[in-house]
Design brief:
It contains 8 helices and no strands. With about 130 residues, the protein is mainly α. The chain has one domain: Uncharacterized conserved protein DUF2267 (Globin-like, Orthogonal Bundle), CATH 1.10.490. It starts with a helix and ends with a helix. This is DUF2267 domain-containing protein. InterPro entries: DUF2267, DUF2267_sf.
């Protein structure tokens, strides 16, 4: 999946009015994932994405991921996007759903392992989308 296809899929999935909104939500979600994942896992994920998206995940190679709960995940996305946490949750679900389609199932499974059990609701929503 190329960059334009990814952004278009996010835009459609979350019913964004503009492409810019979909880009902002995508970058906010990926940058927050970069903070949560082990640096090397984020790099592996980045390798399967277009450069524009992969760059949001790079820069923490060899570092440990921060351990924060799902509510903090949404709060950080909301802060980056300038939206409330409920909107950020919807956007994150859309981005993660498209991400699941854009990378190999093995890579997405590896990403899932980097998130604690309290993220089950997010990953269940993705599985149902």
């Amino acid at each position: 999946m190329n960059y334009d296809q990814f952004i278009r899929a996010v835009k459609e999935s979350a019913s964004f009015e503009s492409r810019e909104g979909a880009i902002q939500a995508t970058k906010a979600t990926l940058e927050t994932m970069r903070e949560r994942l082990l640096g090397d896992e984020a790099s592996h994920l980045a390798a399967q994405l277009p450069k524009e998206l992969g760059d949001c995940l790079r820069g923490r190679e060899g570092q440990m991921g921060e351990h924060f709960k799902v509510d903090e995940f949404y709060r950080r996305i909301a802060e980056r996007e300038g939206v409330d946490a409920d909107v950020a949750q919807s956007h994150a679900t859309a981005v993660m759903s498209v991400l699941r389609q854009a990378v190999s199932s093995g890579e997405f499974s590896d990403v899932r392992l980097g998130f604690a059990k309290d993220y089950d609701e997010l990953f269940a929503a993705i599985a149902n989308s």
